[in-house]
Amino acid sequence: MKFKGVLAGSSILLVILAVSIVWPLVKAEPAVQVFLYDEAGKLVDTPPYSPSEEYWLGADREGNDLFYTLVAGAKWTLLFALTVTTLRVLISVIIGLFSRRLFSTVWVGGFMQAFNYIPQSLLAIIWLAPFLLYELRTKPPLDLGETLVLQIVVLTLVGIPTLTRMVAETTDHIYTFEFMESARILGGSRWHIARVHVLPHLLPRMAVLYGRQLVQVLTLILHLAIFHIFLGGTIIRSGQEHDQFNNYYTQTFEWAGLIGSRYEELLLEPFIIFFPVMAYSLLILVINMIVNGIEEKTTL
Question: Is residue 219, in this structure, part of any structural domain at all?
């Protein structure tokens, strides 16, 4: 039953990703309508527009179709999170697998354990804010590609210490199995033991850990968005004539950015923030469903 949840959850993620990639290619972004008129030419509404037949999920204060932005931004959210999670797991497995004894020492183990008490979002904000947040009316310091590369590197690095320590501890536990002593006595090389004996026991656990890391990365992205650090960069515009307030926008429409740039709408126009929050919650729920199914299958 749980395995059906894995298939269903994986299918949902693939459908979301496929639709997000294909939809903008086959359908142009709806033109922004600053004013809505009836058939008689009478002004009937101005942005934000409530959900209707024309705007399924409504439109924000700039007139952007919320359904289109959600669909277009899904691929940025998913692909970025998957990339960071994959890099975290690969690097941590390589280091933890072949340097496991290093993490059992007092100095290295104690240093790595300290990262359990340091919020990853705090480290990411400290490293990213100077490069991505800029003064109004000045040019953004990095373009889209450079920003994404920097964010991938930073979000990967902040998660490696704790994840590597977990991999090293798991590897150490596998080395306590009786057959590992036999493999060493028979003269198995370090690489042979790791490939033939350790990895088959480590990979199923890494599958569960991968899913948990994916949820952690999505949560981290959302934390950064609250501080106006969006995937692909932050667009900053003046909110008033004399720049008393700044407005922050995401140029990729990634879901965390849609939430972080509009959370003040919760008390003004709740539907603007409601649908991105529900989409993000659904994404995390689906991933947790997949992880729970994998975890139950590996423990049988």
Answer: yes
Asked if the structure places residue 170 within a domain, the reply is yes
Contact in structure between 231 and 240 (CB atoms under 8 Å): no
DSSP bridge partners of 49: 59
Whether residue 44 is contained in a domain is answered as no
Helix or strand run (H / E) with residue 289: helix 270-299
87 class by beta-carbon count within 10 Å (0-12 exposed, 13-18 middle, 19+ buried)? middle
Rg (CA), the chain: 23
User: What mean pLDDT do residues 122-131 have?
Assistant: 92
pLDDT (tens digit per residue) in 4-29? 778 888 999 999 999 999 988 888 77
**96 assigned to some structural domain:** yes
Q: Which helix (H) or strand (E) holds 249?
A: strand 246-250
DSSP secondary structure letters along 204-269: HHHHHHHHHHHHHHHHHHHHHHHTT--TT-EEEEESSTT-SSEEEEESS--HHHHHHTTGGGGGT-
Alpha carbon distances (Å) from 138 to 125, 142, 224: 21, 12, 22
